[in-house]
Amino acid sequence: MNRRHVVVALAALLLLAGGVLVSQRARRQVPLRYAEIPQETKDFFRGIERAGGDIVARFREEPVEESWRNETNEGEDAGNGFFKLEDDDFIVYYHPGDDNAAKANLLFAAAKRAVRPLADLFGKYYHPADANGRKLALYVCRDRAEFERLSTSRNPYAVAVASMTFSPTGALCHGLFFAPETFTSVGWRPGDAASSLRVQRTVWHEMAHYVFFSSLDLSTPLRHPQWVTEGVADYASGDTDRLREVDPAGIIPLTEFETGKYSGVWLRSAYWIGYTAFVFMGEHYSPDNVRRFLQLSYRNPTQRSIEQATGVSFAQFDSDWQASIRLR
Fold first, then answer.
1. Residue 114 to residue 136: CA distance in whole angstroms
2. Which residue, of 42, 78, 81, 159, is most buried by count of CB atoms within 10 Å of its CB?
């Protein structure tokens, strides 16, 4: 009887020890839903973080899990005093009073209208089911101070930003934050169609950042230049106002961006350079070539993606685009 008890006890200890070893090994292994991020891609995200443009980026080596819950939104903190509009895809946070409810409804409607066009351009729109259950949050900020505090934006020229964290768990969008200048800079008035359309372009620009970065394959080496990341957002929003900034004397060759010279640097000119490069691709080739380029760019370098999408060398594409700018 005692011998039997000893055997049972030893067996139990062996099972316990085996369970501990398996548990430790499981903790050391990266779960399948996490990405092993190459160093080049980590440097790419850190460069975006340093640039401080209209993408407020953070890179984390460790998986980010808790922040995916909608309950962690800044707008859910009662101390921030937000009301909200909400459906299955979006949450719009706003303050009571003034024209804020009208602004919130404008952002809400613009966001819902963006889903199909963005899915058509990028190949997919990221609904909550594609983002660990997280809805896309949009904030109508009371003043510049709240905009900077909640978004953590350091860019004095930004009127709106997409706040994102990149980690082995993917691209987590904390929210799209809209400063009062989103509305005042275009002379927005409730019911005014022209100024409402310009606000919508800002909403679509920031949503394009959300979709583009959510589409990237973080397990591959990536280093997209700013003309791509900002240009495609302007292209997706249809921001023809960007053409007013075109300066043939200020052209930066697309090949020069590939040197890494502008990594981590915010360039105002990258917006019109990128916008016109995408417009040129769509007009000189076709909109399908733009979509093809984007599909390739999610897991390939920019230069290779351009060449495979257009069938010409990157240097030729660059030269032809520059010529199109000088002819404007």
1. 12
2. 159
